[in-house]
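Colleagues,

Please find the record for the two-part complex below.
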Amino acid sequence: MALLEIKDLGISFGGLKAVDDFNVEIEKGELYGLIGPNGAGKTTVFNLLTGVYKPDSGTIKLDGRDITGLKTAYVSKCGIARTFQNIRLFKKLSVLDNVKVGLHNRFEYSTATGILRLPKYYRTESEMDDEAFELLKVFGLDGYASHLAQNLPYGKQRKLEIARALATKPILLLLDEPAAGMNPNETVELMETIRFVREQFDMTILLIEHDMRLVSGICEKLTVMNFGQVLTFGNTDEVLNDPQVITAYLGE
Amino acid sequence: MKKFIAAYRNRFSKTTRQNTLTFGMVIFAYLFVEAVLRTGNMSSLLQGLLVPLCIYAILAVSLNLTVGILGELSLGHAGFMCVGAFTGSFFSVCTAGTMPNLLRFIIALLIGTLSAAFFGFIIGIPVLRLQGDYLAIVTLAFGEIIKNLVNVLYIGRDESGFHFSLKDTMSLNMNGGEVIVNGPQGISGTPKDSNFTIGIILLIITLIIVLNLIHSRTGRAVMAIRDNRIAAESVGINITKYKLLAFSISAGLAGLAGVIYAHNLATLTALPKNFGYNMSIIILVFVVLGGIGNIRGSVIAAVVLTLLPELLRGLNDYRMLIYSIVLIVMMLINWSPKLVMYKEVLLNKIPFIAKRRKEEE
């Protein structure tokens, strides 16, 4: 059984069918790419997956469990974590605290425990610190732990966003244009990071990307969208040589 | 063990040091004032200001929790203070003489705090689900409504129990007994339990609650919501729950200040002067000038801006002029990017601060 199964997913805004009859199956451990021209509905699919929008039709199954239309916070608890096209960090919090917010649902103590500083507070906080530092180390950010997130350079902010997403211990990671705004060197570094994350955490990854070098470099399978619908899908090499895809991107 | 302690110091030193500084400042101010009081060097005018200073500081800290940490605007903090003042005072008048003073005052504090928090909760349920400035609008209305409501509230007590009316004392239909809440005349005869020491103790308790809250799992979640609601939701944080929690605590602490206020006066009335719109704005001024999100700054701003008009009394007509100039200067120092940068440069020239900052890098 596939880890993520989307069937006949659709949503329309007013008269516009932003996503229509969208199907995809992702197996555990795959690195799957979702590509398509601007406005094809890729990010809308992500928003439907994470409960930002409620679909008009279709079902989403994660690991056999129906998560269609659940609220964002519950979707996160079910095991989907995401990053955003335009970076969304907690700017005024330190790098360490950003990751600790990601750990929020995995290490619990009550508000009263926090205010009264009971022993459980110190115990849990130090466990959270250890866990967060470990994640930061993986991304080479441990030296920046006390910096404010907004003071990090762009590439490191991207990495921090991935670290924060991983802190929720997801079974599926969604990356929305991770290479947007990066120079070629940073993109190469990012490709290595994504590969590394997949091996280190045994992660299934679905990513949206425009950078074809990144897509052909790391994705095993692709789904191409155009005008809200699936244009074609399959192995990366085949898809990228498909005349339909070339037409969609470059025109006749 | 040694390694653990070193790691602990490394990670927590900055917040711990900041908190110690805040508490140290309050305690030092207390000792200083007590010393001046004991030696009889304080004018009665200033003595009368001591408890209000604590009240304003608590209000400023509690509003900063809403404005700075939660990132929502509340324009009706005086309303929550009013709720706390009247419920606490009502309890005290009802039970005066039936239990030890201190115990009664503590229960009154709890009742005032909880009822204000309850009102905060009720207001928050519909409003905090929305995004935008709705909280400011609703709290603004709440502050005005609660004040007017209290002004037409009549509660009396006789042998057969409590009587309640929104019309006048006659319609209470009492035989004998006493009127406790008497409409526009408010509650009279509240025991005078507040004093400077109690005010300072409650200020410290408020600071402990707020500072510990900020540096805990809950506070992080609240600040995450402030910084980026969508991202906070995407990591599984229940937005409404944490917004409600923070706002209720903030309202409750305003209620606490209200109870102290009520127990500092012989007669408690809901006037525009003490619980009106102006009061809410004054508290907001403390928060903005002390620095949004800066708890220590709120305390300092509350103290300075309350003392200033009194200290300038000698200048008669010019005192509000100077007050407004001070407001403008404080605003510039805290918010103008160039001056903030210049302040940093100056601070870095002080050897031990520069050294510490380097270590933290």
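The longest helix of chain B spans residues 2-38.

Comments are welcome before we finalize the supplementary table.
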